[in-house]
Amino acid sequence: MLIEMPRHTEIFGSVKIHELQRVLKLDSGGFENPRAKDISFEEIKDVFRHLAIVIPVKDEKIHLLDGVLRAIPFDCSVIVVSNSGRDAPDTYKMEKDVITKLHEFSQQEILIIHQKDPELGFAFYEAGYDHLLDKDGLVRDGKSEGMIIGMMLAKSLGKDFIGFADADNYIPSSVREYVLDYAAGFCMSESPYSMVRLHWRYKPKVVEDKLYFKKWGRVSETTNKYLNLLLSTCTGFETGVVITGNAGEHALTTKLADIMNYSTGYSVEPYHFVYLFDEFGLKTEDIAYPDAVSAGIEIFQIETLNPHIHEEKGEEHINNMLLGSLRTVYHSKLCNDYVRLKVLEELGDILELEKPKKNIIMPPIGGIDTSKFTKMLESNSETFVRFEQGAIVREIEKEQYLKGEAFQIST
Ligand code: GDP
Ligand code: CO
Fold this sequence. Notes:
Blueprint: E1 2-4, E2 9-12, E3 15-18, E4 21-25, E5 36-38, H1 41-48, E6 51-57, H2 62-71, E7 77-82, H3 91-106, E8 110-114, H4 118-126, H5 143-156, E9 161-164, H6 172-188, E10 194-199, E11 203-207, E12 210-214, H7 218-235, E13 250-253, H8 254-257, E14 262-263, H9 268-280, H10 290-295, E15 297-303, H11 315-330, H12 337-347, E16 361-362, H13 370-380, E17 385-387, H14 391-402
Parallel strand pairs: 3-15, 4-15, 6-7, 6-9, 7-8, 10-15
Antiparallel strand pairs: 1-4, 1-5, 2-3, 8-17, 9-13, 10-13, 11-12, 14-16
Helix pairs in contact: 1-6, 2-3, 2-6, 4-13, 5-13, 7-9, 7-11, 9-11, 11-12
Bound molecules: guanosine-5'-diphosphate and cobalt (II) ion.
Cobalt (II) ion binds at residues 166, 168, 310-311.
């Protein structure tokens, strides 16, 4: 892959935010130049083997999930965390059937679990991590909550990198590109604490009767504006470096995933920035993560070659997203009166209260005993299934071996 070098990197304490980088060629020929980096497919494949792609899904069209699953490169492991309805027709069962079929054909490693599985809630409880549980001991609704489940399963597989892909994508091959872009980001990273966030080149919309290749959505544009304002008022230098505030499609190293705080629902992505600014932006006396501080935290922002076409979910969803996003800025430790006022003005009528509520924040998952957590799921959970890579092939080989048919040494 040939990818533009970042023109500039904004440094805020230990956080390095690289400016947007465009994908110049998905498949390149090894010719480097000072403005672009060539990353070979071998290097990218090396990352794939250590990468799990988590797909949070809630009642999406089954055709869309099917397309997304089929687009993810074989060497990555796939983790589907579903919060879909279980009443007849049981959408979760449909999702599991699609996965079972796909595994039969492809032999790719795929895991699936249901967010509301009582044993999953219990495993979190037993692990001492009850921050995502409701009063009945079940995991709450929410995309972020689903992502945390996915990250725990990725850790149980011993993965070094975790990426996310939404299930409501209409263009399967764009998902393949996202995974390539993640891997490219990790190939460029110099720190074990890094994150890759994607920016769509276009988000096409039907305007009157034509396709219009729109660059910005309202929520992303506004979220970025306030994240940049927060940064600018802290440093005293105006910046527009943040352009991936709401990037649902992002990936991070497991080392970084282990030390992040997570905000609930859809505010999870903008809060990544707010948390990193709050925790690693300014020098503080008590350093919680000295390794990360000395290695630095790198954020790559990559512009995809493919456009993004996903399910449109209506005005209420957009407003909730905007509210969730701007609340993270409002409640940042670094936010001053001026920024708070600007946020209130921006929210206007969307805000029903006098000031925005705080989002629920979930602490790092790094301290959870992963093997105990997974063992509990393996022995008790009814919805958790792990389809291993090459499992059927190995079963056939075992049978052949027992029959004395295989492993004959040829001379
Ligand atoms: P948008 O694309 O950012 O507007 O948000 P979407 O509504 O498309 O959500 C992103 C992804 O998260 C989709 O694949 C949803 O199906 C999924 N999702 C939404 N809510 C939940 C949830 O409560 N749990 C899980 N596991 N996934 C969810
Ligand atoms: Co979507």
